[in-house]
Structure formats: C-alpha cells, structure tokens
Amino acid sequence: MHFTRRRFLAAAVGGVAAVGGAFAYARHVEPGWLRGSHISVPLKNRKLDLPLRIAHLADFHASDEVPFSIIDEAVDLTVRNQPDLICVTGDFITTGMPSPRIYRSILQKLSAAAPTFAVTGNHDGGTWSHPRGGFQSTREVKLLLEDSGIELLSNRSTSWVGESSRVSLVGLGDLWAEESEPDIAFGGIQETDDPVIVLSHNPDSKSALKKYPWDLMLCGHTHGGQLRLPWGGTPFAPVRDHRFVHGLGAWEERWIHVTSGVGNLHGLRMNCRPEVALLTLTSEGEQGAG
C-alpha cells in the first residue's frame, strides 16, 4: 500500500489520540477503580484450628494526588470483608500530613472493626523521606496511628490470640530509611507451632530475613508496578527482585504477599488497579476460602 502524506497524518493523529486516551485512563480512571482480591495461603507445619482472615492494605499515600475518598472506600471494603486481623504495611502519606482529623476518622474504622497492626514506609518520614521533602522522622505518622487505635510494630513483635488461633506478628522498620533491625524485631519470637507473620514495607527486606523463623511476609511499596506495560512488565517497580512486585509468591519455603496498594505517586496507574486484599490462612491441606 502506498503510504501517502494523508495516510501518514491519519496514522500520526491516531497514535496521538491513542497515547492521549491511555494517559487519560491512567490519570482519571484506574487510580480510583478499587478492587478486592481474595487469596488462600496454606501454611506448612503450622497449626490453625480454623482459617484466619487477614486484611492486607498498604500505600494509602494520602496527598493531593490521592484524596481521602479512595482511602475511605478501601477502608469500608476492608470492614465489609470482616477480617480477623488487619495489617497495613506502610506509606500512609507521600510527604506532608493532610488533615490529621479527617485521616484519623477514616483509620479509626479499621481499628474499630478488628485488631489493626502497621509498619511505616519510606515516605512516612526519616532519612530517605526528609531529603525529598518529607518529614525528618516518623513522629507525625506514629501519632496518627496511635490516635487511630492502630498498633505500630516498629522493630518489635507481638502476639494475637483469637477464638481459635494464635499468631505472632513481627514488624520491621523501613529498609530504605535504614531502620530495619531484624535482630531486635525477632528478639521475642520463640520456637512455636503458631504462624509467624512479618510486616515489612519493602519486599526486598526478605534478603536479610532468611535465618529468622517466619511463614508469611506482608509487603507494599511497589504499587504492583503502578504502570504495568503489556510488553515490558514492571520496569518502574522500585525493587531489586521483580519476582515480588504483586500477589502471593513462594520464597525459601515461605510466602510473600505484595499488595498493589490503595494510593499512588503522581496520580497515575495503568494495568494495576488499587487493591484491598483478604488473605485466608489455613494449615496446609485444609481448604480455605478464596
């Protein structure tokens, strides 16, 4: 076919329109198009009398790009799922703290629904965040969580006892903020048949955790890749190991779950919708919901 000037201009206009349409979708549609995911996690050599339902959230990134409305919608969906436990793995903000009063009223719905535990992320203040316009420390976020009834696990562990299950929870400081101290965090963990669940913002933390006893690590940080390219995967995911960008994956006979999170940076998402995850933990061989 002879490629005339008219055909060339028509193709160029079509290409520009396609790019413009993709940008409009990534900017105005997908960032607010929340989805729920339900995942079964069979734990080897661990005792659970009944399946344990854990809601996993991350990366709220409250900011000008992420309004409270999408965070509130994610919280409401979490509450409707009726989890036994709720875990939030960091990046509550991007730089500054939008209205603490409004934010607190939203987060309090989580702690009112179920015991809620959290760790901070690289944007929540500290040595990584401060040079990039964020807070000098995580103090503001810690106060927000405390006022919201959310228990912060900053390089420490705790136990949770339900009606028929008991789990140990270990929380790590953020890797990029150079606050991750696994020796301290795992200091209170004893040999047990109970599941051990790690909360860590960045899935690359796994490299320093190989020698410690744990069964499942919950992470955020990647936003699922945020802009997932159909031909190029997740080149923008801020991790070294791109095997763990989104979803449930096996590593060293354990599980790592990375949620795509609720918020975003720069107001964009493509092929990677915001997510509220519900994980159902069972002893291996049992049938969990999902």
Question: If you had to describe this structure to a student in words, what would you say it looks like?
Answer:
It is built from 5 helices and 12 strands. It has one domain (33-283): Metallo-dependent phosphatases (Purple Acid Phosphatase, chain A, domain 2), CATH 3.60.21. The protein has a 6-stranded mixed beta sheet with strand order 1-12-2-3-4-5. A 6-stranded mixed beta sheet has the order 6-7-8-9-11-10, with no helix packed on it. It starts with a helix and ends in a 7-residue tail after the last strand. It is of the alpha/beta class. Helices cover 22% and strands 22% of the residues. α2 (68-80) runs parallel beside α3 (100-113).
Produce a short descriptive summary.
The protein has about 290 residues and is an alpha/beta fold.
The dominant shape is: globular
What structural class do you assign from the helix and strand content? alpha/beta
Task: Identify the CATH class.
Answer: Alpha Beta
* Share of helical residues: 10-25%
Strand content is: 15-25%
Oligomeric state of the chains? single chain
Keywords, separated by commas or semicolons:
290 residues; alpha/beta; Purple Acid Phosphatase, chain A, domain 2; 6-stranded mixed sheet
